[in-house]
Every structure is written in C-alpha cells, then in structure tokens.
Amino acid sequence: MDEFESIRRYWLPLGEPPCDGLVRGIGDDCSELSIPPGQNLLQSIDTLVSGTHFPADIHPVDLGWRAMAVSASDLAACGAKPWNVLLALTLPTPDQSWLAGFARGLGESSRLYGLPVVGGDTTRGPLTITLQVQGLCPPGQSLTRSGARPGDLICVSGTLGDAGEALRWLGSPGSSAAAVSAVCQRFLRPTPRLSLGMALRQKATACIDVSDGLLADLGHILAASQVGANLDLAALPLSQPLKTLAGTRALELGLTAGDDYELCFTWPERAGNPDQLCRDGIPISVIGVIESQPGVRFSNPPDGWEAPKNLGYQHFTA
C-alpha cells in the first residue's frame, strides 16, 4: 500500500463531519478554511516520538486516541473551542493492521473532541506523530500564563500523578489489579478538559495544562506572571489507585509526574468558589495561593518530607 492509498483508506474518513468554514480539505496541496466571524484562531503543534513520549509497544488504537487527546489539551489550556487538526505521520513500514488501529483511535477521539482532520502528510522513517490543532476563541477571551496576581487561588482539575505511576506498569504481564488498570487508563486515554477551559474564559487569571508535571508547569505561570506560590501539600488531589500503588511516592508523583493533562489555573478569590466550574463530574481542588515573593513554598508537608529536586520532565536535560 502506497502513501496515497493510505490517505484514501485511513485519513479521508477522519475529515467527517467537516468543521465549519471548511472550503477544501484533504486532497489538495493545502486545506482552505474560512475563519468564522468574531473569532480568533488559536494554533498549537505537538510531536510524539516513539520511545520518548510513548512506549514502542503501545496498542495503536490507544496511541491514536492519546495523540489526539494530548494535542487537544493545549486548546483546553487556552480556553479555545476545538476546530480542526492537521496530521503528519512518519512510519517505519505501512503496516495495514497498525494503520487501521491507529486511525480508529484517532477517529474516535477526533469525533468526541470535535477535531476533524483537514490535511497532513505521511512519510517513511522512525515512528513519529505530529498534530497541529486549531481552535477558536472570541478576541480578548483566550487564557494565558501571564495573568496570575498575589492572592489568587491555585486550582487544579481532577487528580495528579496517575499517568506518571502508569509508566511502571504499562505492558506488565498478568497485572489485572483494578488500581493498575485505573492509572494505565489515565496514561493511555487522557481527557483534555475542553469544556472547563472554555468555562474559565474571562474568569481565571492564568491557565496551563499539566503535561510535564505540576511544579514545572505551574512554574511557567509563575515566571510569566512574575509571582510566587505557596502550595498546600495536604490539598493535592491524589487518587486512591495512585496511593495504593505508589505509597509514599504518591506525593512526589503528584508534584512532578507529567502526562495527566489536567488544567492548573489561578482564580481570583473575589470570584467565589471555583467548584462552580466543575464539569462532567471532574472535581476542582484549591491547592495553594499566589504570592508576590518569587519561588514556591510548601505548607503542611508530611513528616520527614523533602522537596523534590526534580521539578518535572524537560527535553535535553538529564
């Protein structure tokens, strides 16, 4: 099967239903879209490399789902409504079984999150997946990292650390424990908090998705906003499966492990209880407060606890 047959068989169906404003989709050198009136275009691009961002033996259906979900999470962090996506796929071989599974997972998440594929490219080489997502937001309403102010509450959605613990268990033969299944599902099928992101427009003062670890990603907000933070360690939302599997390591995973794709945002205290933002049954936890003094401080540490030296994942560092 050649490149063009793979496009016809696997990628053309992912353009349905088409997004609003689509003039031309897959089949020309460029896709062409008309941006709806009264909307700004938000774009983000993510590259996932086998062995770096996902295990080489991950099931292709899960990989397709995960690739779309982690890319959509950037739209959630900016409060954007999903619009469409471009796909660039590099494959060692055109394995039809693998392609069918990957296209199935990608298509399921594409339809769920409202991100039809409008174009892309397929090449030969080491397995690499690049998705460029595009979203829409009214002018002046997108979320950024730079608006946090002293006194703002620091909030996160869902729970943290599960996907980091999953890396110990993915591919483990014979493991059928419910806790293992729960954390592995958080890695394989992350959920971008798109409805929450849109609900935070003109309310949250800053926002980011937790992809590299809470401390690392909150650090981006602190740097962009030129503020500091005090985190209440007793308030960090850790799931029971994580506590069961990780024990005393659970807190460090909650602070430093990536791949959870929850939203971390700052909320002006005068705006009331952020629980009002709960979407799809996903809880919101207040885990700290923004302070004027730079740096991060910790409240209510457990006995004998030491602050982690590793603040989260970074490319090109040991």
Automatic annotation (TrEMBL):
The PurM-like C-terminal domain, residue ranges: 149-297
Positions bound to ATP: 120-121, 145, 211
Family annotation (SUPFAM superfamilies): PurM C-terminal domain-like, PurM N-terminal domain-like
Residues holding Mg(2+) 4: 29, 44, 74
UniProt: Mg(2+) 2 binding residues: 46, 74
Sequence positions that bind substrate: 53, 259, 313
Reactions listed under catalytic activity: thiamine phosphate + ATP = thiamine diphosphate + ADP
Residue positions binding Mg(2+) 3: 29, 74, 209
UniProt-listed GO biological process terms: thiamine biosynthetic process; thiamine diphosphate biosynthetic process
Record field: transmembrane: none
Keywords for this protein: ATP-binding, Kinase, Magnesium, Metal-binding, Nucleotide-binding, Thiamine biosynthesis, Transferase
Binding-site residues for Mg(2+) 5, renumbered to this chain: 212
Pfam entry (one): AIRS_C
GO molecular function terms listed in the Swiss-Prot or TrEMBL record: ATP binding; magnesium ion binding; thiamine-phosphate kinase activity
Other comment: Reaction mechanism of ThiL seems to utilize a direct, inline transfer of the gamma-phosphate of ATP to TMP rather than a phosphorylated enzyme intermediate.
Database matches in NCBIfam families: thiL (TIGR01379)
Function: Catalyzes the ATP-dependent phosphorylation of thiamine-monophosphate (TMP) to form thiamine-pyrophosphate (TPP), the active form of vitamin B1.
Family per similarity comment: Belongs to the thiamine-monophosphate kinase family.
Protein name per Swiss-Prot or TrEMBL: Thiamine-monophosphate kinase
Source organism of this protein record: Hydrocarboniclastica marina
Gene (name only): thiL
